[in-house]
Amino acid sequence: MAMQKKLQHLSAMLTKTMALVPAMAAFLLLFAGIASAHVTVKPGSTAPGAWETYTIKVPVEKEIPTVKVALKIPEGLDFKQYRAIPDWKVELTKDSSDRITVVTWTAEGEGILPGEFQQFEFVAKNPDGDAELAWDAFQYYSDGSIVEWTGGEGSEKPHSITQVTSQPAGADSASQHSHDHDHDQAAASSSEHEGEENHAGENGSGNDPQAAETTAAISDTAQESSAPGSSAANTWTILLSSAALLVSLIALGITIRSTKKSA
After folding, report:
1. How many H-runs (helices) and E-runs (strands) does the chain carry?
2. What are the pLDDT digits (tens) for 168-203?
3. ∠ at Cα 133 (78, 148), nearest 5°?
4. Which residues pair with 92 in a beta bridge?
5. Sign of the C-alpha dihedral, residues 87, 93, 99, 103?
6. CA-to-CA distance for 41 and 55, rounded, in angstroms?
7. Local confidence band at 63 (pLDDT 50, 70, 90 cut-offs)
8. Coil, helix or strand for 148?
9. Can you list the positions of beta strands (E) in 83-239?
10. What sign results for the dihedral spanned by CA atoms 87, 79, 101, 200?
């Protein structure tokens, strides 16, 4: 009778222990889902010299709205036009050579609410040769906090990367798309770019203290973006997986040890 109770007790312990494994696995999946909700810029690959339509996707990871997004334009990329979005004001920041270096979208309404995302589109001319475009983005929340998406690949808050290459994925279709897009945009580029420059003069950061503050914050973090980030998501995954494996091994050891004693 005593042996039977001991076996039942060990069986119950093993059952409870093994029940932790799927729970930990579910937590890992949930954590991975949260960690993947980054600010991203697409496409990830494009052709040299093409007039490309880029899309920045901004999800909300907090329980408060996102009210402003600033995107630093990579070196070598010539910003041309943007798509107007209702209830969002666009500011174009330029350097001393009149090149657009930062695009800032500011909400005039509630902004991007929790559980939502927003996409902003713009057109830019790619560098003529192969290049890697790193998109540093700054996400402003309604409480004044700023999330800086400026880290390297594998970091907790990575920036998006676009490869400008003469051999992109789907080279034939991409080449045809770029050619058609270039042809469609060429005629309108001069007048539309002039209109954007006038708009930038009205809404730019030349005399706007808030825009100047945004530009300063971007400049301060630009130097830090090249440093390798700590891979928080990968670290958590390894630790939790190791813990689940350790618990399983302990349970197996207890069972084997009890079996030997019984024998």
Report:
1. 4, 12
2. 455 444 444 554 555 455 444 444 444 444 444 444
3. 105
4. 103
5. negative
6. 6
7. very high
8. strand
9. 88-94, 100-107, 117-125, 131-135, 137-141, 146-149, 160-164
10. negative
Amino acid at the residue 167: Q
Residues 39 and 148: their CA atoms lie apart, in Å, by: 10
- Please tell me the chain's helix, strand, coil percentages from 3-state DSSP, rounded to the nearest 5: 45, 25, 30
CA distances from residue 80 to 103, 131, 144, 193, 235 in whole angstroms, order as listed: 11, 19, 30, 6, 40
Give Cα separations from 51 to 1, 123, 128, 165, 233 (angstroms).
Answer: 81, 7, 11, 14, 35
Q: Which of 162, 164, 156 is nearest to 227 (CA)?
A: 156
Q: Which pLDDT does position 56 carry in this prediction?
A: 98
Which residues contact residue 184 at a Cβ distance below 8 angstroms, ignoring those fewer than 6 apart?
Answer: none
Q: Is 137:159 a contact under the CB 8 Å cutoff?
A: yes
Instruction: Please provide the distance, in angstroms rounded to a whole number, between the alpha carbons at the two ends of the chain.
Output: 15
Confidence of residue 250 (pLDDT cuts 50, 70, 90): confident
Sign, Cα dihedral of 190, 191, 194, 195: negative
Tokens encoding 145:
């906090």
Handedness of CA 41, 47, 49, 53 (dihedral sign): negative
Name 155's bridge partners.
none
Determine contact, residues 105/85, Cβ cutoff 8 Å: yes
Which of 71, 80, 93, 90 shows the shortest CA–CA distance to 205?
Answer: 93
The residue written with tokens 């009149």 in the block is 98
Q: What is the DSSP string of 99-130?
A: -EEEEEEEESSS-B-TT-EEEEEEEEEPPSS-
Q: 3-class DSSP state for residue 53?
A: strand
